[in-house]
Backbone:
């Protein structure tokens, strides 16, 4: 239990770097969206197919985007919990 509390104390010292971590997360998500959808866009452009079912990669990317968004907004909705 004390190791967990000490870990939270160590994370609190990283608060000044939070904007940098948010930027890295956004760049990572942007790169993931480009690499995930690039092949799909090329296939649609070449074949003219517009209707498709989202695959596992797309769903995982959407879930991770929601989780990252919730973690970024955590300090703003934390007082309401």
Residues:
């Amino acid at each position: 239990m004390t190791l967990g509390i000490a870990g939270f104390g160590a994370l609190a010292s990283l608060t000044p770097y939070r904007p940098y971590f948010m930027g890295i997360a956004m760049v990572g998500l942007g790169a993931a969206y480009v690499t995930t959808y690039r092949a799909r866009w090329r296939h649609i452009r070449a074949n003219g197919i517009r209707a498709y079912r989202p695959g596992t990669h797309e769903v995982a990317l959407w879930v991770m985007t929601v989780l990252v968004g919730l973690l970024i907004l955590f300090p703003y909705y934390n007082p309401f919990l």
In short: Helices lie at 2-12, 18-47, 56-77. The mean pLDDT is 84. Residues 5 and 11 are 10 Å apart (CA to CA).
